[in-house]
Amino acid sequence: MSDQPEIEIQRQTAFGDDGQLEVTETSVETSLEDFGADVDHRDRDSRLDRPEASEFGVDDRPAVEQSTEGDQSTLFADTDEDQQTLAGDDAAARCLFEE
Fold it and tell me: Is 33 helix (H, G, I), strand (E, B) or coil?
Protein backbone atom coordinates (compact mmCIF):
# COMPACT_ATOMS: atom_id res chain seq x y z
CA MET A 1 0.00 0.00 0.00
CA SER A 2 1.29 3.44 -0.90
CA ASP A 3 1.65 6.35 1.53
CA GLN A 4 0.70 8.76 -1.25
CA PRO A 5 -2.94 9.73 -1.43
CA GLU A 6 -4.85 8.95 -4.62
CA ILE A 7 -5.62 12.14 -6.52
CA GLU A 8 -9.13 12.30 -7.89
CA ILE A 9 -9.78 14.71 -10.75
CA GLN A 10 -12.90 16.67 -10.05
CA ARG A 11 -13.04 18.99 -13.08
CA GLN A 12 -10.84 19.89 -15.98
CA THR A 13 -10.76 23.39 -17.40
CA ALA A 14 -9.38 24.98 -20.54
CA PHE A 15 -9.10 28.52 -21.83
CA GLY A 16 -12.04 29.49 -24.01
CA ASP A 17 -12.10 31.79 -27.03
CA ASP A 18 -12.58 34.82 -24.79
CA GLY A 19 -9.54 33.93 -22.64
CA GLN A 20 -11.56 32.81 -19.60
CA LEU A 21 -11.28 29.37 -18.01
CA GLU A 22 -14.18 27.10 -18.86
CA VAL A 23 -15.03 23.64 -17.52
CA THR A 24 -14.60 20.97 -20.20
CA GLU A 25 -16.34 17.60 -20.45
CA THR A 26 -13.46 15.87 -22.27
CA SER A 27 -9.83 15.81 -21.26
CA VAL A 28 -7.43 18.05 -23.16
CA GLU A 29 -4.03 16.60 -24.04
CA THR A 30 -1.25 18.80 -25.35
CA SER A 31 2.33 18.27 -26.35
CA LEU A 32 5.30 20.55 -26.89
CA GLU A 33 4.78 19.82 -30.60
CA ASP A 34 1.49 21.76 -30.35
CA PHE A 35 3.58 24.84 -29.58
CA GLY A 36 6.07 24.34 -32.43
CA ALA A 37 8.84 22.53 -30.56
CA ASP A 38 10.81 19.77 -32.25
CA VAL A 39 10.41 16.61 -30.18
CA ASP A 40 12.79 13.70 -30.67
CA HIS A 41 10.82 10.44 -30.61
CA ARG A 42 13.81 8.10 -31.00
CA ASP A 43 14.20 5.35 -28.44
CA ARG A 44 17.30 6.09 -26.39
CA ASP A 45 19.37 3.75 -24.32
CA SER A 46 19.21 4.28 -20.61
CA ARG A 47 22.43 5.31 -18.94
CA LEU A 48 21.92 2.29 -16.72
CA ASP A 49 22.07 0.03 -19.81
CA ARG A 50 25.48 1.34 -20.88
CA PRO A 51 28.54 -0.81 -20.13
CA GLU A 52 30.51 -0.07 -17.00
CA ALA A 53 34.11 -0.54 -16.01
CA SER A 54 35.12 -3.80 -14.36
CA GLU A 55 36.78 -2.03 -11.43
CA PHE A 56 37.38 1.46 -10.09
CA GLY A 57 40.06 3.41 -11.93
CA VAL A 58 40.16 1.08 -14.95
CA ASP A 59 38.26 2.20 -18.05
CA ASP A 60 37.87 -1.06 -19.95
CA ARG A 61 34.50 -0.19 -21.46
CA PRO A 62 34.08 -0.74 -25.21
CA ALA A 63 34.92 2.30 -27.34
CA VAL A 64 31.97 4.42 -28.44
CA GLU A 65 31.66 4.93 -32.16
CA GLN A 66 31.50 8.61 -33.06
CA SER A 67 29.58 9.70 -36.13
CA THR A 68 31.28 12.18 -38.43
CA GLU A 69 27.97 13.27 -39.90
CA GLY A 70 25.93 15.97 -38.26
CA ASP A 71 24.45 19.42 -38.52
CA GLN A 72 27.41 21.15 -36.91
CA SER A 73 30.10 22.87 -38.91
CA THR A 74 33.78 22.72 -38.12
CA LEU A 75 35.24 25.64 -36.23
CA PHE A 76 38.56 25.65 -38.09
CA ALA A 77 39.21 25.02 -41.78
CA ASP A 78 40.78 21.77 -42.94
CA THR A 79 44.14 23.01 -44.23
CA ASP A 80 47.69 21.84 -44.78
CA GLU A 81 50.13 22.60 -41.97
CA ASP A 82 52.07 25.12 -44.05
CA GLN A 83 49.06 26.77 -45.73
CA GLN A 84 48.76 30.55 -45.28
CA THR A 85 46.04 33.12 -45.75
CA LEU A 86 46.35 35.95 -48.28
CA ALA A 87 47.57 38.17 -45.46
CA GLY A 88 50.38 35.70 -44.67
CA ASP A 89 48.87 34.31 -41.45
CA ASP A 90 48.75 30.62 -40.59
CA ALA A 91 45.50 29.33 -42.21
CA ALA A 92 45.08 26.36 -39.83
CA ALA A 93 44.80 28.65 -36.80
CA ARG A 94 42.12 30.89 -38.33
CA CYS A 95 38.60 30.45 -36.97
CA LEU A 96 35.96 30.21 -39.71
CA PHE A 97 33.49 32.32 -37.72
CA GLU A 98 35.62 35.38 -36.91
CA GLU A 99 34.09 38.72 -37.78
Answer: helix
